[in-house]
Write a structure and sequence with these properties.
By secondary structure, this protein is of the alpha+beta class. The protein is 51% helix and 11% strand. Strands 3-2-6-7 form a 4-stranded antiparallel β-sheet. A 4-stranded mixed β-sheet has the order 5-13-10-11, with no helix packed on it. Helix 9 crosses helix 11 and helix 9 packs antiparallel against helix 17. It starts with a helix and ends in a 5-residue tail after the last helix.
């Protein structure tokens, strides 16, 4: 946009020169080039003085962008600012001034991230000039025509539902309320309450506003809609940069809204010099007291302690329980091979016995039970291998995407803080998703290759079937998550379109996203799948597993203790994982739904790493207990153990909606639970993949050290 503006200015300057210098066309070529370079240098200086470089010269125009209006309790129920019957400021940008090229209500060029985040900035029509007025207040005003019944109803609804407006100046946001619901000042009861506590220094409407705010005895009194008509805009600047913006509404300017009323809106603009630094101008928008509260630090400490506890528990399993298992199996083999047992210590098959009749060696159970007994089935392919491979591939893509976005945000001081740029995080998510598609393809392809073929799987009994299975794996990896996401977002987009909010995703943005998916994500996924298909799974080129898979599956015992059943273990694993992040989840949801700028990405990185460790440890424990119960179907169990946390995340989202917010209405409820479902789904796939990976490494490690006949 800056280049286009530069070209437009250059053309205008050339036309001006042609008018003033009729003989310019007769100049020599070197003279023309020199003059063009001078004009280009002027263009550079002009284009540098705008909101893209955040540098201005005295008298430069500063754009005041209006973004949205809507109920404060419903963040997604946002409408165009001029959907309310505000009047156009009486400036050069007024719609009637066609010759001046009116910018009033013109839509600003937005990035994909801005449109997905629900931003629709339009020019306010106000004519602000940098550092003008010599610190004197400049007034811009306009008058509405007599309000029609529909226009009065619009303002009334805004006052009743506590609508607020949202604006931007030099990428700095400002907010304010549209109006208030106040009692009729002429009501006798209101006058009595009013006179008892009135401060002579307050205006009538200021005092009336205080009366309502103090919840005095006004029961039974009808409230009427009032609209703020006077706003005071204070802009502080340091040299050539804007560093602070404040916008306040004057309670004394509250005017009752009713059909036929004419409203006079005024904006009082004042430029004030300051010594505040430009680089810290966004700090006043960050709620440090909230995000860096002691509870936040305590939650991180609590999560670390949980990590140490789980790591100790897993170490106990590995160092003590497994050591005893190895010793038991080794003793059983050596005793049976040497044949040094008495006849009364063995059964009819020659196996040692305990007093109660169970086989034993040296007082320990022999190897007729336990995890070693499933060595011939533990590396059997999971059911629905094609779907499982696609889910695991998608999970690795989400792991890569999440880490990439968090690291990008942590590196904010190097490239610009992400909370200072509209839609920057969404931009990073789209970019990381597209580029990480190769990870999804490679992970799903290599996992499918690992378990397909031979006795491990019966899915590829012929070359034709093998090719079909590969194509199905590739297609599922490409389509699985995007399809679910598109279904949810399309539903929400339809609801938004019906309500006429600015959160409706424009058709051109949908086309851009589709193009990114088709021309970047899909080819990278296919390429990654091909890499995974030809990946070398074993360093020696042999069987990638330490144990052979039996041709006939072993029956799984049904009479097992409660701690050996996956259905009993999986919920507890998810609860422990959720316990490590639920405080951080509260801060994230508060930022998402309560107008706070999340900026503590270092905390988020630490919690992400803690979550990875907790999910890994809990999944290993679950898988060990299941294998001990001779249940070799551990792949889906490991995935479910990690993914079960998503159920608690969704349930916490339900709790947050009813007890931590004041959201209401079908539109906001649909958006909230639609986004919460997406968050829970993606988090479940991510944690399930982490659980499967850690369990896979654990199973390989324990069976690698066991000697099998």
């Amino acid at each position: 946009k800056a280049r286009r503006r530069a070209l437009q200015i250059k053309r205008l300057d050339l036309k001006t020169c042609e008018k003033r210098l009729p003989t310019m066309r007769s100049l020599s070529l070197p003279s023309r080039l020199l003059l063009s370079l001078l004009l280009l240098q002027k263009d550079v200086s002009v284009t540098n003085a705008d909101e893209y470089t955040h540098r201005y010269a005295t008298g430069d125009k500063v754009n005041l962008w209006v973004n949205k209006v809507g109920p404060y309790a419903n963040p997604q129920e946002a409408y165009e600012y001029y959907s309310l019957p505000y009047c156009a400021p009486d400036t050069e940008h007024h719609p009637d001034n066609v010759e001046s090229g009116s910018l009033f209500n013109k839509l600003k060029i937005h990035s994909i991230g801005e449109r997905l985040a629900g931003h629709a900035l339009r020019h306010s029509g106000h004519d602000l000039k940098f550092a003008s007025g010599n610190e004197q207040t400049i007034v811009e005003e306009c008058n509405t025509k007599s309000l029609t019944t529909e226009e009065a109803a619009s303002f009334t609804k805004a006052a009743e539902d506590q609508w607020f407006f949202h604006m931007y100046i030099d990428d700095l946001p400002v907010w304010g309320m549209v109006g208030e619901m106040l009692p009729d000042p002429n009501n006798p009861k209101v006058k009595k309450v009013w006179e008892n506590a009135k401060d002579s220094q307050q205006s009538d409407l200021q005092h009336l506003n205080d009366v309502v705010g103090q919840n005095l005895d006004l029961e039974g009194i009808e409230l009427k809609p009032f609209v703020y008509t006077y706003r005071y805009l204070s802009v502080s600047y340091n040299k050539d940069r804007i560093v602070k913006v404040d916008l306040t509404s004057d309670p004394a300017s509250l005017i009752e809204v009713k059909p036929g009323a004419e409203l006079n809106f005024k904006l009082f603009i004042k430029w004030e010099p300051t010594d505040e630094e430009f680089h810290s101008r966004f700090d006043r928008y960050l709620d440090h007291a909230f995000f860096k509260h002691q509870i936040h630090w305590f939650s991180i400490f609590n999560s670390f302690m949980m990590v140490f506890f789980l790591m100790g528990l897993v170490a106990l399993i590995l160092l003590r329980t497994l050591r005893k298992d190895y010793a038991r199996y080794a003793m059983s083999r050596s005793d049976l091979e040497e044949g040094d047992m008495d006849d009364d210590q063995v059964d009819e098959n020659g196996k040692p016995l305990l007093d109660e009749g169970r086989p034993s060696v040296g007082g320990m159970p022999a190897e007729d039970s336990g995890w070693k007994q499933v060595h011939g089935d533990v590396f059997r392919a999971p059911r629905f291998l094609t779907l499982f491979a696609a889910i695991i591939g998608t999970g690795w893509q989400l792991i890569t995407l999440t880490m990439g976005v968090i690291l990008f945000a942590v590196a904010g001081p190097l490239h610009g803080e992400v909370h200072e740029e509209r839609g920057e995080v969404l931009h990073a998510i789209i970019t990381c998703y597209a580029l990480s598609s190769i990870v999804a393809g490679y992970s799903s392809g290599s996992l499918f290759k690992l378990y397909s073929g031979g006795a491990r799987s019966k899915t590829a009994s012929s070359p034709g079937q093998a090719s079909a299975q590969w194509q199905a794996t590739m297609a599922l990896t490409v389509m699985l998550l995007p399809t679910i996401t598109v279904i949810i977002l399309s539903t929400l987009n339809t609801v938004s379109l019906v309500y006429g909010t600015i959160n409706t995703i424009p058709f051109l943005v949908i086309l851009e996203l589709f193009a990114i998916w088709v021309f970047v994500s899909v080819p990278l996924t296919i390429f990654g799948t091909l890499l995974g298909r030809h990946a070398k799974l074993s360093s020696k080129g042999g069987d990638p597993f330490p144990c052979r898979v039996n041709a006939i599956p072993r029956p799984i015992p049904e009479d097992v203790p409660a701690h050996g059943k996956p259905a009993n273990l999986i919920p507890f694993a998810g609860l422990l994982s959720f316990g490590s992040i639920f405080i951080e989840l509260y801060y994230l949801l508060t930022s998402l739904w309560n107008y706070k700028f999340y900026h503590v990405y270092g905390f988020l990185l630490g919690v992400y790493l803690i979550l990875t460790i907790v999910v890994s440890m809990t999944t290993i424990i679950v898988v060990y207990f299941c294998l001990n119960a001779e249940n070799y179907l551990w792949q889906w169990t490991a995935f479910a153990s990690g993914a079960s946390m998503s159920i608690y995340v969704f349930l916490y989202g339900v709790f947050f909606f009813f007890f931590k917010t004041s959201m209401n209405g079908f539109l906001q409820t649909a958006f909230y639970f639609g986004y919460t479902s997406l968050i829970a789904l993606n988090l479940g796939i991510l944690c399930g993949t982490i659980g499967h990976f850690s369990a896979s490494r654990f199973v390989r490690a324990i069976f690698k050290n066991v000697k099998v006949d």
